[in-house]
Structure formats: structure tokens, C-alpha cells
Amino acid sequence: MYTGIVQAVRPLADITAYPGGKTFTVRLTDDLLVDLKLGASVNIEGTCLSVTGIDGKNVTFDAMNATLERTNLGDLEAGQSVNVERSAKMTDENGGHPIAGHVATTAVLEEISTAEDKAFIRFRVPEEWAKYIFPRGFLAVNGCSLTVADVEDNLFTINLIPETLRQTTFSRYNAGDRLNIEVDHQTMVMVDVIERTMARVLPAKA
Question: What is a GO molecular function of this protein (predicted)?
Fold first, then answer.
């Protein structure tokens, strides 16, 4: 599990394609390398990946084609940077909200502003996922825990504070790019239970 508080933005040193997937090499800092072991889970741009190799500060992660298709990892290029968060310990303070690093869908970035007086991202999600997103609700976008400011059908706006822009990769994104979205699990369960309950009850009253 993760908290959605991005610990660092780190460069992609290399991306190597192989039959069935890609290997991503991320150059980590000393503090992110502490006690890091093969098989450890690390949140990379919102996606939970397992460490497959450690060579000094260069750490490799493999992503299968299914993951590349479901996330924006397949859009990444060597030299770009990614949001990084190590998995949280039970005793860690959670300043965000619990996230699993399991990307539900990708959203198309419609508009982004990085102006000091009004920084925000506005994006559109597929209709089937819009029902899980509410104003003032939690959402993980590229692994960052954020609060939804405004909702209009399947178009969502999130305001960004300067610290979020500084500590994440949002500033390099442009309209038309894809964002990784993880909806709040508890909200998703609640909505699904209500829908199933209503589907059973309403026909019985007809």
C-alpha cells in the first residue's frame, strides 16, 4: 500500500522493450534505496511495480503489455521523469489516502495550468469510471493523492498547490496526454453495492 504522497521525481535512465513488455530503469536517490530489495513494490507514476534489478542507483522494473495498455507507462520515454513512492510501513504517517497502485483507467488531460495564482488539471475519464468520482473525494492521479474540486459529467478538475507542482511530474504534461487514475476503493465498493441493491429491489416493486 501507498499514501499517495510522492517522495521524489526521478529520471528514467533507460526503457528497453522485450517480447511481452518493457523494462524501465529508474535512477533513485540514496534515501529511496535504503533497505530496497529485489521483489519490493514501488509506486512508479501511480503504478505498483516490482523491483527486478538493482545496480548502484539504477533500479529496474518490468511491466507486461497488459500493464502498458492499461496505464500511461507505455507512453513514457527515456530521459523523462516519474513520480516515485516506496511502499508505506504500518507505522508511517499517512498524509494522503490509502492507495494500492492498481490503475483503474487512464484519463485524457483536457487542460492544465501551472500559473502561480491558478494551477489546476482538468481531465476526462471513461463514462464507466466517472460514477466513482465525487467533488471533494479522494483520487490518485499518477500516484499522487489529490482532492477533486469540480465535476461536470465525466470532466473533472483538481486544483494544484505549488508544492504539488514542485514534487510531481504534472508540470511536464500537456493537453492530450494520458494520466493514470486510481479511484478510492471504498467509494467504488459503496457505489457498486448500492447499484446492485437497487437493481434487485426496484424490479421487485414494479
Answer: riboflavin synthase activity
